Amino acid sequence: MSINKKNIGDVVPGEFIIVLKDGSFVQKFQDKVNSVDDHDAKLLTAYKAILACCATLSTNMVQEFKNDDNVAYIEQVRVVGLKLPDASLVTTAMQPDDLWNLNRVCERKLGVKCPSHAPATGKGITEYVVDTGVYTDHQEFNGRASWGANFVPNSEDTDEYGHGTYVAGTIGGSTYCVAKEVSIVSVKVLDARGSGTIANVLAGLDWVVKNAIPGKSVVDVPGGGGKSRAIDDIIKRLYNKSIPVFVAAGTDPSHNSGDGSPSGSPYAYTVASMDWLDQPSRFNSPGKNVDIFCTGLNPGLEAIEVYEYLSKNATSGSLSGDLKGMPNLIVYNNPNETTVA
């Protein structure tokens, strides 16, 4: 169903995520949806990581499945998407050094210079960017970026919005970023307008669970949605598989990041932005669930622009990209660790 005219948090009429208790019931459940005498019923996607399905259901069928002992819970599919910070809350003060972000990563004290190339570079680690896609041929990636999967219907295997490429560049770009040798895999779940659905994001994360190697992988997911038990459950699945997930806190000061998914999940590492004076960015979404602040608003990141407007399509996730790069270095040095803290 088209979401072009819907806002973040709006429901997608008739579409539901049905999470099951027992894996042996999945095929029986699929057969039930496909065989029911209801033109509104259609199985859209089957997920494996959390034993769930996305389907179009009538009101009567929703109630029927809610009463089924094999069903853990049902939630309606909602629209998710990227929210740009209010321009009035974004500082325009120039930083003293285009590489200030790298200096802040390796030194606690302000003003201390560090080498632009860290001893650990993320080589051998794969970062899965679950976003709007990645322009994998950009020169900043030096051939380290590849296409993974596309879960946006009727869209091309490229970044049609710019945000995913920006995020990937702040994580593993060769010039201004921390993990300069990390491999980047694009998982597209948001469209050319930066919008998608919970079902898209679930499909992308389900694919990551199947393909990512524990101890050698890190996942980046944007914020931008309401609370979803299904999203939180699959984040926990990744956590338990020793695949850390990093997510933006958000860019709306009036919204508590703990009220969203996956930003509010205790199994995700929620990242907020700070400026070059170690002050939290004014556009951050607050919340006790915020795990860490990291450098944002780096003018040097203009080097990874893909489209003319790319540098404007920034969220707290893309504005805190150095933190997203750091887990790659931690995993590189500690492959047997089960978490990244």
Automatic annotation (TrEMBL):
<dbReference type="InterPro" id="IPR037045">
    <property type="entry name" value="S8pro/Inhibitor_I9_sf"/>
</dbReference>
<dbReference type="InterPro" id="IPR036852">
    <property type="entry name" value="Peptidase_S8/S53_dom_sf"/>
</dbReference>
<dbReference type="InterPro" id="IPR022398">
    <property type="entry name" value="Peptidase_S8_His-AS"/>
</dbReference>
<keyword id="KW-0720">Serine protease</keyword>
<dbReference type="Pfam" id="PF00082">
    <property type="entry name" value="Peptidase_S8"/>
</dbReference>
<keyword id="KW-0645">Protease</keyword>
<dbReference type="GO" id="GO:0006508">
    <property type="term" value="P:proteolysis"/>
</dbReference>
<comment type="similarity">
    <text>Belongs to the peptidase S8 family.</text>
</comment>
<dbReference type="InterPro" id="IPR000209">
    <property type="entry name" value="Peptidase_S8/S53_dom"/>
</dbReference>
<feature type="domain" description="Peptidase S8/S53">
    <location>
        <begin position="122"/>
        <end position="305"/>
    </location>
</feature>
<dbReference type="GO" id="GO:0005615">
    <property type="term" value="C:extracellular space"/>
</dbReference>
<dbReference type="GO" id="GO:0004252">
    <property type="term" value="F:serine-type endopeptidase activity"/>
</dbReference>
<protein>
    <recommendedName>
        <fullName>Peptidase S8/S53 domain-containing protein</fullName>
    </recommendedName>
</protein>
<dbReference type="InterPro" id="IPR015500">
    <property type="entry name" value="Peptidase_S8_subtilisin-rel"/>
</dbReference>
<keyword id="KW-0378">Hydrolase</keyword>
<dbReference type="InterPro" id="IPR034193">
    <property type="entry name" value="PCSK9_ProteinaseK-like"/>
</dbReference>
<dbReference type="InterPro" id="IPR050131">
    <property type="entry name" value="Peptidase_S8_subtilisin-like"/>
</dbReference>
